[in-house]
């Protein structure tokens, strides 16, 4: 028997820059997915927020997003990543360290067939969008200097704890078997609770802003919403850390659930308010994206439809009915309703994951065929105890994230308040962007500005004329 030897094509053969342990396809997709997630914030949520608020807050709202994204990425590589995904220090936090050393960055990541550098970037844009979502609850009144302090503090003392506990293999909730496919708990429940808590401490907008806060550009808002929706392909499709059938399923489930949720919210608006609301459709889109996130790759397509029906109706009910009847909810000014669109929708997704997770699909993602079984499948397969345990773990995860973010966010707000005011002054809130940044989104010329501009143009044109003609014009005037 003879053996035939052959060599791989040069572009596939391993070398020092592409070692045997690295899968080029997985690495390429992971970098692409990370970029899609980054586009959800910059420019996605930047222009969604900028278009959704009153004209006088367009610059401030967009700038809160831009600052948060930049600040998080720097803090992430300096200490945040290793706190979230580094060697265990305690059951809910890693050892503090940087993620900038070249030798470390080219080593294999803790999961997946790609280097640490790819994982650091991928997880960094997830951390960044979480802070961006919190900003949605605070638009229209938070002191920008307070926001500059809040972002690194919350990243350090809240996000890292959730991420390590739930996503890192040594985290205590990860070991218990919590299902959070792509951030229903770590990102959406966290940001919803933290945003609502911070809004309580910051205080409300001016009365006239709360009563009337029309979007300054609905088309711009829709463009941002579209980037958010399409970017979710990377959000959920990138979390298997591999180009796989499970990643494909997660992407399809994401878009099916989102479309169903949008249509459900739209139908409820038509039935009860007699008009199809664009803003309502965007909210239904967001709740669908959020709800499917913890379950994207572990549920069947019909379950994605069911989750879309739930995410388009339950948050609608809490926002349109419960919110208006609750004194507490009325007291807290949550500008973009992140409590409903992220905290409630994220919790809903976590619970439905505990009901609808398919053992086979869970095994594809987690690699553990005897764990991660939804209650309905547990009952069907004679494993009711395992299904009940899964629901219990899902509920425990919700309680942990809620408690963590209420406590940590409150402490951070109180600490920041000792340094700078959390809320802008009444006078600055009357003015908006011009007072906060000395800039406006739209240059609207008044009579006085037009007179000054006309005088300036006249002076400039005289300077370009020959001296004799300029003098003659002066005499004529």
UniProtKB/TrEMBL annotation:
Main localization, broad class: membrane
Molecular function via GO: ammonium channel activity
Any one GO CC term of the record: plasma membrane
Membrane-traversing stretches: 28-50, 57-79, 120-139, 146-168, 183-203, 215-235, 247-266, 278-296, 302-323, 335-357, 363-381, 393-420
Residue ranges annotated for the Ammonium transporter AmtB-like domain, each copy included: 28-442
Compartments where located: Cell membrane
GO biological process, one term: ammonium transmembrane transport
Pfam families membership: Ammonium_transp (PF00909)
PROSITE patterns: AMMONIUM_TRANSP
Keywords noted in UniProt: Ammonia transport, Membrane, Transmembrane, Transmembrane helix, Transport
Region annotated Disordered, chain positions: 455-477
Membrane topology of this protein: Multi-pass membrane protein
Basic and acidic residues biased stretches: 455-466
Record protein name field: Ammonium transporter
Organism: Theobroma cacao
């Amino acid at each position: 028997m003879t053996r035939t030897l052959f060599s791989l094509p040069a572009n596939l053969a391993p070398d020092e820059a592409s070692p045997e342990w690295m899968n080029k396809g997985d690495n390429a997709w992971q970098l692409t997915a990370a970029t899609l997630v980054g586009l959800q914030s910059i420019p996605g949520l930047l222009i969604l927020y900028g278009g959704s608020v009153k004209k006088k807050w367009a610059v401030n709202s967009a700038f809160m997003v831009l600052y948060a994204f930049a600040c998080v990425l720097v803090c992430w590589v300096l200490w945040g990543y290793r706190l979230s995904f580094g060697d265990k220090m305690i059951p809910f936090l890693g050892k503090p360290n940087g993620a900038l050393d070249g030798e470390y960055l080219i080593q294999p990541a803790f999961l997946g067939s790609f280097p640490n550098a790819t994982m650091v970037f991928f997880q960094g844009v997830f951390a960044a969008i979480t802070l961006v979502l919190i900003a949605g609850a605070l638009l229209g009144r938070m002191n920008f200097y307070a926001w500059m302090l809040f972002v690194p503090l919350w990243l350090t003392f809240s996000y890292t704890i959730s991420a390590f506990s739930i996503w890192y293999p040594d985290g205590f909730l990860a070991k218990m078997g919590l299902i959070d496919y792509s951030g229903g708990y770590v990102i959406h429940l966290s940001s919803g609770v933290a945003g609502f808590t911070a809004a309580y401490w910051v205080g409300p907008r001016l009365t006239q802003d709360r009563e009337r806060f029309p979007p300054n550009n609905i088309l711009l808002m829709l463009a941002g919403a579209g980037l958010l929706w399409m970017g979710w392909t990377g959000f959920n499709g990138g979390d298997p850390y591999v180009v796989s059938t499970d990643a494909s399923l997660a992407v399809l489930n994401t878009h099916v659930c989102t479309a169903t949720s949008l249509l459900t919210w739209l139908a409820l608006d038509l039935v009860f308010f007699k008009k199809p609301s664009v803003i309502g459709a965007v909210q239904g889109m967001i709740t669908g994206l959020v709800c499917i996130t913890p379950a994207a790759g572990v549920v069947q397509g019909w379950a994605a439809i069911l989750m879309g029906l739930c995410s388009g109706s339950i948050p609608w009910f809490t926002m349109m009915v419960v919110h208006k009847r609750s004194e507490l909810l009325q007291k807290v000014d949550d500008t973009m309703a992140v409590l409903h669109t992220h905290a409630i929708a994220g919790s809903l997704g976590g619970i439905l994951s505990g009901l609808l997770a398919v053992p086979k699909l869970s095994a594809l993602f987690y690699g553990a065929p005897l764990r991660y079984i939804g209650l309905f499948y547990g009952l069907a397969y004679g494993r009711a105890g395992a299904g009940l345990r899964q629901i219990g773990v899902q509920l425990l995860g919700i309680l942990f994230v809620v408690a963590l973010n209420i406590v940590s966010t409150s402490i951070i707000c109180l600490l920041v308040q000792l340094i700078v005011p959390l809320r802008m002054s009444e006078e600055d809130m009357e003015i908006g962007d011009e007072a906060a940044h000395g800039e406006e989104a739209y240059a609207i010329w008044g009579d006085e500005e037009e007179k000054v501009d006309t005088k300036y143009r006249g002076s400039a044109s005289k300077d370009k004329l020959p001296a004799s003609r300029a003098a003659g014009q002066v005499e004529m005037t």
